[in-house]
Write a structure and sequence with these properties.
By secondary structure, this protein is α+β, with helices and mostly antiparallel strands. The chain has two domains: 88 residues, 2-Layer Sandwich (Phosphorylase Kinase, domain 1), CATH 3.30.200; 195 residues, Orthogonal Bundle (Transferase(Phosphotransferase), domain 1), CATH 1.10.510.10. It is built from nine helices and nine strands. This is Protein kinase domain-containing protein.
């Protein structure tokens, strides 16, 4: 990547509110856009203190070239001979699902796009890959208005320099181990993060905005592992999506909504986007799944 290729530097920063702004510094990577005309390429240069990050990235990503799915944003190239791990992918000019909804002043597409992202996640899980950092900024929208899940599997080489901005989306067992065993990543933790991503997508804010600091968040989570279920229902989230969120964010990993059921329920939820609550049939379906 030469300096003549770089049009400008961008980064997505997660603050108290969702912010999709241009910045030269982010939590764990710098993004460079190469070229001025589409199709443009995005170079993600990971900033990390891990000494063998390039070797780790090679081990982590060697199978990614075989991943093919309509709702994944796969890397077209991975550069290993650069001082820091560098990943190359197409630039999605519509941004992520929050960017897309803000620009269109509409939430109507969210159930469909969330369902597409869930399909991408299901494919990853079928290949034995956990996403590890699932939130709205990692669900991109392509030129055909299809959702594509991005930045999967990068957690082994990412060490944020200023704390972990992803802490708000992490499952309780990742932050407050109850049996003495720390859970780094798991399929059920991805489901929990997906549930909080639903809240983020409809509010344009990170989860738990009423808690100002990560320290206070951890204290409250230790006192109540079901902290996510205490979130008040946002006015603009449909009842069906609200029920899906709660089923994803059960504090007990084994009780969380299975991914196949999540996809089916998001498909059904499309018919409820204009209503204030889910119909009784939808409610019964979720209750029956939760009892299994």
């Amino acid at each position: 990547m030469t300096s003549t290729q770089i049009a400008h530097t961008v980064d997505l920063h997660l603050g108290d509110r969702y912010i999709g702004k241009y910045s030269t510094e982010g939590h764990f990577s710098n993004l460079y856009i190469a070229g001025t005309q589409p199709p443009q390429l995005l170079y993600r240069v990971v900033r990390t203190k891990i000494q063998n990050a390039c070797e780790m990235s090679l081990s982590t990503t060697r199978e990614w070239n075989h991943l093919k799915h309509a709702h994944l944003a796969t890397f077209s190239q991975i550069i290993y001979d650069y001082p820091s791990p560098t990943f190359v992918q197409l630039l999605y000019r519509n941004g992520n699902i929050v960017d897309f909804c803000v620009k269109r002043h509409s939430l109507a597409s969210l159930p469909i796009m969330l369902g597409q992202a869930a399909q991408g996640l299901e494919y990853l899980h079928s290949k034995g890959i956990t996403h590890g950092r699932l939130h709205a900024s990692n669900i991109l929208v392509d030129d055909g208005y299809q959702a594509r899940l991005a930045d999967f599997g990068l957690y082994p080489i990412i060490e944020p320099l200023n704390g972990d901005p992803f802490i708000w989306w992490k499952a309780p067992e990742q932050l407050v181990p109850t049996d003495g065993t720390e859970v780094l990543q798991s399929f059920s933790a991805d489901i929990y993060s997906f549930g909080l991503t639903i809240i983020e997508a409809y509010t344009f804010k990170r989860p738990f905005t009423h808690i100002r600091s990560a320290f206070q968040f951890l204290i409250q989570l230790k006192g109540d592992l079901g902290l996510a279920t205490t979130i008040h229902k946002p006015a603009r989230i449909p009842g069906s999506l609200w029920m899906i969120f709660r089923a994803c964010c059960d504090p007990r990993p084994e009780r969380r909504l299975p991914l196949g059921n999540l996809i089916a329920l998001l498909h059904r939820a499309k018919s409820h986007v204009g209503t204030g609550g889910a119909n009784p049939s939808f409610q019964r379906t979720i209750r029956n799944i939760s009892k299994r």
